[in-house]
Design goal:
alpha+beta; 4 strands
């Protein structure tokens, strides 16, 4: 879960600082994947995003879909809550921050996903590959190698990569930043 303090000018021209909350649970990720394969598609889109429209769509999906209202141990999300945030002045401040510093966006995106998600993807990938997969290289080795070396092992097309390699390609794309962020 990410808490992010955002200072913005509200519609009454007052400067306001408010804490916003963002999270995707392992269940939400799994359910999205099982229902629509949206997670796989999203990982593909992150790696292949080329136009401004692609980046904005991805930004809205990740930020809007993960935003919620926290009340103690409860975290409420709904389409109405997401839409309200996507129309707020706070979103503009956040978008500007991420456009000016792509590293901050990478940190945010990485922190959205539960750390165990990548472990579960790796486990599922091993089962699907008959437990063979690419076990000659650790995740750390695959993350550290050159793009050419990684492509030789994982392949060039995201759609043809194993789930493990897709997850690692995504982490390589955004810089493999640690999965905890507090802004």
């Amino acid at each position: 879960m990410i808490s992010k303090d955002i200072t913005y000018t509200n519609f009454d021209n007052e400067t306001v600082t408010k804490t916003f909350w963002f999270n995707y649970s392992l269940y939400e990720i799994a359910a999205m994947q099982m229902r629509t394969e949206k997670v796989t598609k999203m990982l593909d889109e992150i790696s292949e995003a080329k136009t401004g429209a692609d980046i904005v769509d991805l930004f809205e999906f990740l930020v809007g879909g993960s935003h919620g209202l926290r009340d103690g141990d409860d975290f409420d999300k709904s389409e109405q809550i997401s839409t309200r945030f996507l129309r707020s002045p706070a979103l503009s401040v956040m978008f500007e921050e991420f456009i000016l510093n792509s590293g901050r966006f990478a940190e945010f995106v990485t922190a959205l996903f539960p750390p165990e998600m990548f472990e579960k993807i790796n486990e599922a990938s091993e089962k699907a590959d008959g437990a063979i997969g690419d076990r000659l290289h650790s995740d750390a080795e695959l993350l550290a190698m050159s793009d050419e070396e990684f492509a030789a092992i994982a392949g060039l097309k995201m759609k043809r990569m194993s789930a493990r390699h897709k997850a690692l390609a995504y982490r390589r794309k955004i810089g493999a930043i640690p999965a905890t962020v507090t802004a």
